[in-house]
Amino acid sequence: MRRPVVLAAAALALVPGAASAGALTAQSIITGYNLVASGDVTTNADIEGAAVIGGNLSGSGQFFNNSSRQPADPTVSVYGTVLGGTQIDNVPGIFYYGAIGPSGSIALNGTGSTKVQNGFPNALSAYLTPLNALATQAAAMSQQAGNSIVAGGNSLAFNATTGDSGGVAYFNIAAATLESDMNNATMQFNLSGSASTMIINVIGNCGAGGTCSFVDPGSEHFTSVVSGTTFQPNVLFNFTNETTLGLSSWETAVLAPDAATTTSNALEGFLYTATLNAGGELHNLTFGGTVPPPPSPPVPPVPEPASALLLAAGLGAMLRPRRLGASR
Q1: What is the rounded distance in angstroms from the CA atom of residue 161 to the CA atom of residue 146?
Q2: Is 297 exposed, middle or buried (0-12, 13-18, 19+ CB in 10 A)?
Q3: Is 298 or 65 the better-scoring residue by pLDDT?
């Protein structure tokens, strides 16, 4: 009597997406969140958008304080311990936390806000797994023919005319080269042709100590013929090799899955990092590009007709003695 249940479950497992309906994707996370950190975060500054913190939260940072840039899903998830005094402002948000330390507190200044111990809406891995997969997938891509990086004359330009089937143009630049070229240079991001999104892979580390510090001289040095503003909604930097990363006045979405990131000024848009020591605000500006979907899993090979016949013959031979015995 249990076989129909087993067969139904097996059939459900074969339906694409049946077991992961509503699952988070890299696209939905990057567009819907302001910060994802797999480890600890320390900040005394504002984080305007939704946040996921895999470790502890220290400092007196505030969430959702900018009423003009409210997140669609105003939630904060701290899987570790809240060690400092933090708060939710403006909106009816939800603050999920694992524990509150002796000096920790969560103030709910937004009307209708709540705090929930544990009961997280998703496992931490639901955020980290798709972002790590995207970082790895993007890092393996080659720069397409026709796309170029041009440095010189106080300018560092990424020129994209060719995108993949989803409009993504890939660039690869050495970390040390980027650190050197962007010093006192205007960063230009030029999208045209079939390219609608840039993913820029930053390869390697900087210097003998491996510490990269990307401090833009000023936000006005990020320019684009597409956005017309300093914030670049269609650009994603992928720092896959960095373990120690410094950012300041950065104006694009960032993936830095293995980095201990330190900021000295505001960051615009989404940030994924291992840990964060924030010396500036995180502004909730929405990523407007498209990231590639994960590769499709390999399809199991279908047995050839001859193999299927042999399998059927073998099963028949195994069942025959039982039938003879039953007739006696």
Answers
A1: 6
A2: exposed
A3: 65
List, in sequence order, every residue forming a beta bridge with 67; answer none if it has no partner: none
Q: Rounded distance, CA 134 to CA 183, Å? A: 28
| Residue whose entry in the numeric block shows the structure tokens 């039982």 | 322
**Angle value at C-alpha 248, between 264 and 270, nearest 5 degrees:** 110
Do residues 205 and 243 touch, judged by C-beta distance below 8 A? yes
* Distance of alpha carbon 122 from alpha carbon 232, whole angstroms: 29
CA–CA dist 271, 50 (Å, integer): 11
Q: pLDDT digits over 257-284, tens only?
A: 999 999 988 899 999 999 999 999 999 9
Residue 322 in 3-state DSSP? helix
Which band of pLDDT confidence, cut at 50, 70 and 90, is reported for residue 194?
very high
Instruction: In whole angstroms, give the CA distance from residue 251 to residue 112.
Output: 33
The tokens describing 155, both together, are 């300018």
Q: What is the pLDDT of residues 295-315, one digit of tens each?
A: 877 777 765 655 555 555 665
Task: Go through the chain and tell me how many residues it has.
Answer: 328
d(CA 294, CA 303): 27
Asked if 53 and 37 count as a contact pair (C-beta separation under 8 A), the reply is: yes
Please give the single-letter amino acid code of residue 38. Answer: S
Distance CA 20, CA 9 (A): 14
